[in-house]
Amino acid sequence: MSTLTLSNAWLSLQAHQSVMAQEHLRELFDQDPQRFNSFSLKFNDILMDYSKHPICLKTINLLLALARQQRLEDWISRMFRGEKINSTENHAALHSALRGEHPLMLDGVDIMLDVRRVLTKMDKFSSSIRNGKLKGYSGHAFTDVVNIGIGGSDLGPVMVTEALKPYSSNHITPHFVSNIDGTQLSTTLRRLNPATTLFIIASKTFTTQETMANARAAREWFLDQGGSEKDVSGHFVAVSTNRMEVEKFGIDSDNMFEFWNWVGGRYSLWSAIGLSIAIAIGMENFYLLLKGAREMDQHFITTPMEKNLPVILGLIGIWQINFFGTKSHAVLPYDQSLHRFPAYLQQLEMESNGKRTDRNGNEVDYSTGTVVWGESGTNGQHAFYQLLHQGTQVIPADFLAPCISHNPIGDHHHLLLANFFAQTEAMMRGKSKSEVCAEFE
């Protein structure tokens, strides 16, 4: 047994779970009309309702005691200070610096100087693509941008570009290629004109097998369809740290946008990996994206844990996974714009928590994560909600919805939100055998 699972905080939660397992959520709501007010938090325009989890005030206090025992606030501070908390690779985890405002020293160097330099370069380049000043080899403005990457070099940019389509340029179409099977690349290129297509090759090392196979195939297509060797440098740019391989490919090193080893791939959309986002929505909106992330960073750093949205969500995850034994976590965005969010979150959480040893190399005796999956509503209602409602497994589900739609057509959004609220209530209340029988009498 580990020191964690033998600790007083952990054992207290185990004892408390046996009590909460006997409670039904609808009874908890019936007993406390103010339950929503007690278990919901706001940050700016975000409302987080966690009242439909099997918790009470004692649960939250015990979870907070566990967090304090494990020195969570200290680890948060250490991460934001740039300490090398990634002990395996001896790296800092400073993706938050990508949206920071103040000087931040790492190994005696203010890394914010490099961050601002790359952002300025992204601004200049993306603006030149969007306003047509940078043109293809035929003298025509670019109409299509193909991002070739995989993992964090694909999932983040795809998710954000889809989510922020209402802010996108009407005359530039983004495309994303990640799979090595050839079909995705072939079907994408089939629709494009090489003379007006820009390729972004996103690979930190510029040696990622899938990405470079697709990049070479795209280069061959470009040359076969009318482009020349000298035109490659005007139609291909790189997001990488490997200048030698970038130049060997034929890309002008001036068109290489760098990022750093203190940026994990799954957190990299805020870096130059987000170049495709900047071209799609404009750098002004990209800066607003960074601003929103920075505001959440500040909330995470400065807000007491009991009012801290990320902390509470994380603690509830521990409660569900380790004390109720849940193995699956559904993420259900009721907005088609967020249809790629479950896949993005899947990598973010499962790659981060997919570990079987602690930071000291000791094998753990508790669950470090769960399977994250999901689909946009209401599509999921006609696919897998049957299992969520009536199956034998308890599957925690996060429902997300915007109050205002970018595309108000008829009463579509009202119907969407009606489904959203009805599904969360139905899952919370359930239906007893006697209630079902009464409905058929």
Brief description of this entry?
With 441 residues, the protein is α/β, with parallel strands linked by helices. Helices cover 44% and strands 11% of the residues.
> Oligomerization state of this entry?
single chain
For the record, what CATH class of the largest domain applies?
Answer: Alpha Beta
Helical/strand content category: alpha/beta
Instruction: Enumerate how many helices there are, as a single number.
Output: 18
Mean pLDDT: 96
Biggest beta sheet attributes: 5 strands, parallel
CATH superfamily of the largest domain: Glucose-6-phosphate isomerase like protein, domain 1
| Molecular shape | globular
CATH topology heading of the largest domain: Rossmann fold
CATH architecture of the largest domain: 3-Layer(aba) Sandwich
Task: Please give the share of residues in helix.
Answer: 40-55%
Radius of gyration: 24 Å
Total domains: 2
Secondary-structure element string: HHHEEHHEEHEHEHEHHEHEHHHEHEHEHH
Strand order of the largest sheet: 6-5-7-8-9
